[in-house]
Design brief:
CATH class of the largest domain: Alpha Beta
Bound molecules: aspartic acid, magnesium ion
Strand content: 15-25%
Oligomer: single chain
Length: about 425
């Protein structure tokens, strides 16, 4: 295993590969900062490609015309590739997957929605990784040969033992780590189920992929290259006066990600913490800048972190006979939430009702209502926002709640949460 010391994993998200200029910038970063190490590069789909694929998939699934958005997606990839590569390389990089995508859409027969979603939406990473690998002369790797998951479509659960073995096996077959001379370029977000179908790991899951590789390869570090200066205490697109954490512990970061801080995918930290692999968050716009170092450390009190989740739904359940909400009732409610795959963002119990705040999904909420309608009276509000202030103080609470009507609020020692319109 010693030959792998110095292995680094770089993850480039959608914004860092959004066009040809961004990919040239990526190439500069890889040459300047990654040249002394063996490098594995994980890339996301370009820009908003995953959203576009979701839209195309939904149209195709509903039997509607998706020709225009598909043509747009094809043209976008062709144009970017043409700016970076020779014509023959463009063909090599794109034809296979653009052709497969077209065919998969044409052959789509409505059935298991989530399963089919994965077969289509995964093309974004396949395409972007081809273009990036060609543009930096990297060694392209289909990560589905390595990342093994179960069949939890759209949220594939990783088979760690199988994945680690596959990664080591690949290295051995190639006569040792393939990363020494040439960086390996692979896809974030996707994996493969035992039946051979493609799975995805959940939206924004490429960070998680980087962590999976780093864990299995016992990498020296992971760097996530982003369009922000590091891990900030709030989203700078929403709040003007953010501060950057220069250094922060795994634990704090895991908690922030749990509450919905969008900077890092929530599952990313655990594998890294387990093998004590430091995670750097750096700006691809300013690669010299310090960024944030996430590792096993102690630090003084942190600036309050503000996390906003929009498009929330607040559901209240009351038992039909006005009985108190009992453990038996809760068991039924939790079971139905799990079955409908609704994640609880906050919950609150009172004598005769129980409330949960979840991300809004019409499909999942209606499934939940079907499961519980007989036993409970249900009310729900949509279009809500959930704010979480981690490490709150009086000033941050006052500032954020001012002028807002709170539909639910909850305070623990470290965290203040509220749901509002
Ligand atoms: N492309 C996927 C998404 O947009 C995964 C990722 O970007 O991390 O959700
Ligand atoms: Mg993305």
């Amino acid at each position: 295993m010693s030959e792998l010391t110095g292995l680094q994993v770089y993850k480039f998200g959608g914004a860092s590969v959004k066009d040809a200029a961004a990919i040239l910038n990526l190439r500069r970063i890889v040459r300047e900062y990654g040249s002394n190490a063996s490098l594995l590069i994980v890339v996301s789909a370009m820009g908003k490609t995953t959203n576009a694929l979701e839209e195309i998939f939904q149209l195709a699934y509903a039997g509607q015309d998706y020709a225009r958005p598909l043509a747009g997606l094809e043209m976008f990839h062709r144009e970017v590739a043409a700016e970076l590569l020779d014509p023959s390389e463009v063909e090599m990089a794109l034809n296979e997957y653009l052709g497969d995508l077209r065919q998969s859409l044409a052959e789509l027969i409505p059935g298991n929605f989530d399963q089919q979603y994965d077969q289509i939406v995964s093309y974004g990473e396949l395409l972007s990784s081809r273009i990036v690998a060609a543009a930096i002369d990297g060694n392209w790797q289909d990560c589905r040969e390595l990342i093994q998951t179960d069949t939890t479509w759209r949220e594939g659960k990783v088979d760690w033992v199988g994945t680690e073995a596959a990664i080591w096996n690949m290295l051995r077959h190639k006569g040792g780590p393939p990363m020494h001379q040439v960086p390996v370029v692979t896809q974030g977000f996707i994996g493969r189920a035992p039946d051979g179908l493609t799975t995805t790991l959940g939206r924004e899951g490429s960070d998680y992929t980087a962590a999976i590789f780093a864990y299995c390869l016992r990498a020296e570090s992971v760097t996530i290259w982003k369009d922000v200066a590091g891990l900030l205490n709030a989203d700078p697109k929403i709040f003007p006066d953010t501060v950057r954490y220069p250094e922060i512990s795994y634990r704090e970061t895991i908690e922030m990600a749990y509450y919905g801080a969008s900077v890092i995918h929530p599952k990313t930290l655990k594998p890294l913490a387990e093998r004590n692999i430091p995670l750097r968050v750096k700006s691809f716009l300013d690669p010299e800048a310090e960024g944030t170092l996430i590792h096993d450390c102690r630090h003084a009190a942190l600036a309050p972190a503000i996390i906003r989740k929009t498009d929330q739904c607040l559901l209240s359940f009351a038992s039909k006979d006005f009985a108190f909400i009992s453990e038996e009732n809760l068991e039924v409610i939790f079971g139905a939430l799990a079955q409908a795959k609704l994640k609880i963002n906050v919950m609150q119990n009172s004598a005769i009702s129980f409330s949960v705040c979840t991300d809004f999904s019409e499909r999942r909420i209606s499934q939940l209502l079907d499961l519980l309608r007989e036993q409970f009276t249900l009310h729900y509000n949509t279009g809500l926002t959930l704010f979480t202030i981690k490490n709150y103080d009086a000033a941050s609470v006052a500032r954020l709640t001012a002028g807002r009507e709170l539909l639910l609020e909850q305070r623990t020692r470290g965290t203040f949460q509220f749901v509002c319109k």
